[in-house]
Structure formats: C-alpha cells, structure tokens
Amino acid sequence: MPIKPVKKALFPVAGLGTRFLPATKALPKEMLPVVDKPLIQYALEEARDAGIEQFIFVTGRGKGAMEDHFDHAVELELALTERGKDDDLKIVLDCSPPPGQLTYVRQQQPLGLGHAVWCGKNYIGDEPFAVLSADDVILANPGCLKQMIETYSEVGGNVVAVEEVPREQTNRYGVLDIESDDGKLARAKGLVEKPDPAVAPSTLSIIGRYILQPQVMNHLDKHEKGAGGEIQLTDAMAATIGEIDFHGMRFDGKRFDCGTKHGFIEANIAFALSRDDMRDSVSEILKEYT
Ligand code: UTP
C-alpha cells in the first residue's frame, strides 16, 4: 500500500495544567513562554516546518488566549506599523498560519490524551496525522517532526518519537515492548502506559510526538479508560499493533518536558543559551548563581 503523506496535525491543549498553578489559573499552560515564545508556538512552527498544512487544536474552557494568539491583533499591528517597528510587526504577523488552515474543536471534559485526540476525529477523516504535545519542546535542527516524517516516508504505519529514560521514571511514560531495534528505530510488539519500573518491558519511552494512522481512532471510539482512569492514547496505539506496524524513532535533538517546573526552567536556559543575542549575557547571569 502506498504511504500517504502527513498533512494534518492535532494539538491537544485542553488539559488543566495543574502543575503550574497558580500561573495556569487564567492562562493556558500552552501559552507559557520559553524565553519569548509560547510553548504552543514552538509546536506549531515545528509542524509547519515539517510540511503540515492543517492545524487542529483540541481546546477547552479558558483556552481563548491561544485563539487570539494565532489571530490578527489588529490594534497592535496598526500601532507597530505607525511607529515603523517593522521587525516587531513581522514577528507578530508570522505567528498565524494562513487563513483556513486552523481548526478548533472543544474537549468538553479533560478525560485524557486519548480522548482529546478522539475529539479531532471528524477533522482527521481517513488520513494519517501528527499529534504534537506542546509540553514537549524540542531543540533540534531539523525539527523532530520533520525527522519523523522522513522516517515515516520509509516505514509507514505508526511512528512515535522515543527516548531512553531512567528506569525509575517509566511510570510517567508510554513504554515500548521491543521486538527489534537497530539503535535508531525500534519496532514494537506491544506498548504499556505508565508501567511500574519493576515490570516495564524496556526504558524506551514515548514523548509528545506521534505520526498515526486513522485506524487509531477506531480504538479510541470505545472510550476505554486506562492508567490513571484516563482514556489513553497509548492503549489505542497498542491495540493497532499486528494490524499496523509500530516504530519508535530516536531523534537528534534535546527534549525539554515543559509540563514540569524543572523542565520548563531548563528549557528557558537552553533556548536562551542557543541564541546569539542572549548567550553571553545569560552565561554571565548563570555564573552568579553557580
Ligand atoms: P498532561 O498530562 O501534562 O496534563 O497533558 P495537563 O492537564 O496539561 O497538566 P497537569 O498534569 O495537570 O499539570 C499533556 C498534554 O495533553 C493535553 C494537555 O493540554 C497537554 O498539552 N491534554 C491532556 C488534553 O488536551 N486533554 C486531556 O484530557 C489531557
């Protein structure tokens, strides 16, 4: 069967973000900035650079700031134009994808990542699609999704980004039960969501980047609850193994788990140090604290 290209990406952004309270009481977690750009914009740009043409946001109540962020800010654009601030104007205009490429769908209750993905089902139809979690910000060139799409164009099926985690952390991730592994690409014969370290089948863990076939939605249709009482994407992906090849791809780059405070702070430091306009001054500041 020919491998269909990936042109749609789904962004689950309906979670409560409780680990960042009180910051996330009125502000969506996905709008927290790493240096000067919201988490969700890193994810959107990574998708855009990978050739994605349809961006589907699964949002919830209180997430309106994201819709405003990707819309025109008419007064601001006018003010910047009048003041001749062309560079700032370009930054503002570059935020938004072209008209018609953005769709918002609501997940009325945060029942889990699998449920959030299922909420986008009608917009996915029978095409393969990417899922990007804005929590995982990845410093990589080319971007992680672009690397995955290259691999996907060779192997097809379901492809997720993976990395090794310390064994004591397997209970935070979906973990691969590995059939074969060439050091870059691991083929899985099973998946377990948040296994206890003592029984985890490996330490190769799924991070927030997925390329999935639409059949995954058929399993999400069942709304079965898994680990933590949530509808888990991992369980639906696991159910397709046998019917659809499943590969975990190790990517070149560094991932920051911005769903945690430590990961978020580390991301801010790493991204600042990666920028020519900030490296020296931030290094100086860091010296004061070490
Ligand atoms: P998390 O597991 O980090 O949950 O979701 P959360 O609610 O955002 O954060 P905490 O744990 O309360 O601090 C990972 C991603 O999946 C989305 C979140 O918005 C986040 O981008 N998500 C999660 C949904 O869209 N819906 C859900 O039901 C659960």
How would you portray this structure in words?
The protein has 290 residues and is of the alpha/beta class. The chain has a single domain, classed as Spore Coat Polysaccharide Biosynthesis Protein SpsA, Chain A. The protein has 11 helices and 13 strands. The chain has helices at 39-49, 64-69, 74-82, 86-94, 113-119, 121-124, 144-155, 215-220, 233-240, 261-273, 279-289; strands at 8-12, 33-34, 37-38, 54-59, 102-106, 129-132, 136-139, 158-164, 174-181, 185-193, 204-212, 246-250, 254-257. The protein has a 5-stranded mixed beta barrel. The longest helix has 13 residues, at 261-273. Residues 12-19, 29, 58, 107, 110-113, 115-116, 133-135, 259 line the site of uridine 5'-triphosphate.
Write the layout of secondary structure elements.
Layout (H helix, E strand, L loop, with lengths): L7 E5 L20 E2 L2 E2 H11 L4 E6 L4 H6 L4 H9 L3 H9 L7 E5 L6 H7 L1 H4 L4 E4 L3 E4 L4 H12 L2 E7 L9 E8 L3 E9 L10 E9 L2 H6 L12 H8 L5 E5 L3 E4 L3 H13 L5 H11 L1
Parallel strand pairs: 1-4, 1-6, 4-5, 8-12
Antiparallel strand pairs: 2-3, 6-11, 7-13, 8-11, 9-10, 9-11, 10-12
Helix pairs in contact: 3-4, 5-9
Bound molecules: uridine 5'-triphosphate.
The site of uridine 5'-triphosphate has 21 residues, from helix 5.
Quick overview of this protein structure:
By secondary structure, the protein is an alpha/beta fold. It is 33% helix and 24% strand.
Keywords:
single chain; binds uridine 5'-triphosphate; 5-stranded mixed beta barrel; Spore Coat Polysaccharide Biosynthesis Protein SpsA, Chain A; 290 residues; globular; alpha/beta
